[in-house]
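Limitations

Structures in this collection are predictions, not experimental determinations, and the ligand pose is part of the prediction. Treat each record accordingly. The example that follows, with fe (ii) ion as the small molecule, is included so readers can see exactly what is and is not provided: the inputs are given verbatim, and the output is the predicted complex.
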Amino acid sequence: MQWTEIVEVPIKAINLKVGMYVHRLDRPWLGTSFPLQGCQVRSDEDVATLCGFAEVVYIDEARSIYAGKRSRPNYSFLTRLVDPEALGRLSRLGYASMRGEDRNSPAPVHYPPAVELAQELPRCLNAWKRTQQLVSRSIARAKTGKPLVLDDIDVEVEPMVESVVRSPDAAMWLTASRRQQPLPYSVTHPLNCCAMALVCGRFLGFPPDILTSVAKGALFMDIGMWLLGRNYQLVRESLDPAGTREMQEHVLRGAEYLRTSGFLDFDATLCVLHHHERHDGAGYPRGLRGAKVSLMGQILHLADTFDALTSRRAHRSEETSGSAQRILYKERDASVPAEATDAFFQSLGIYPTGTLVELSNGSRAVVSGQQPASRLYPKLIVLTRSDGSALESHSEVDSRDLIQAVPSVRIASTMARLATPIPLDRVELRKPDQIVAAHS
Ligand SMILES: [Fe+2]
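Predicted complex:
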């Protein structure tokens, strides 16, 4: 099969949107009121008519989704910000131009303030394990040519979505924690991307159903890797042109695998199809350009790249969070629009939760939470003294308080890992107390 052929994305007919191009029905066109095979949905009446003929329809996403500016829900033009202060700041940065002018765009959701990290962490850990098992089972099925078990997916993904809605910090903490552990990249990467994409989607006010689609897209965006002749995630040497071509097939092979499994989530499939496309048109598989790449795809591109850079790989060591941010910032308006990069790091924080940092007095600490009004000053848990020896107990400290109490102390740099690892899962999270004594 040629992987540049039309990719049909199956969806339920009731989920059709104006502008989508229906390439095929789950029954012959003969006997329907449509004169030609294939049609573009032009009105809600068309949707109703098609619902009368078919339960499942197959969308040619290349012909429909991008056919016109108003042909699909366009998340690129949303400003879905939770807090009005952030909206004001981002408007000054040019976000006002992203306001929802598209009539197909759902309204942004204003999620309630996040619960404390310590409160959410046990629930997030449980959700994480379930999602990880789902990914492992799905990879095993893909490798043996069996279709996905669809009943599993929503049940196992929902707790993760709900956890991130309650507390982005807990998911980010686990993301950082997993990067410190000797787990295979193929296991940690989909989960880490899922967590980061959800955190960004929550920040932008994506409705819960879109968050679920983004989560599924992140978990399955690389499922096609397991259908190739070689495990490219383990390859150490640079690929020759033939190897590059085969590796890039993972996108369409993955989308095709989802389709043949009966997977009907259009937005999740779009995430899979777009996660290697680029704003400048230099991506793959289609070389889409500009606004033709969905915001969901852009977010996954950023999450994919950020996690790849900050994870230890077969062919290279990991970058620090700060260094990975600098690399992605250099790519603003090339890989994704600048606004998407800004939103991604606004949502994660300058120092994402779970990031290891070195303080100017030599102590090492881990970021335990964000302060939306003061992103340069996150909450910290100090792990070591300035001589590198581990502290026996850990308390959370507001870095603003720390700097006020000990003016010479500030965050000096981010770190990829500690020389003597302290498993983040075992760090006891407690409220602030005796914060200053250990660091002065
Ligand atoms: Fe990929």
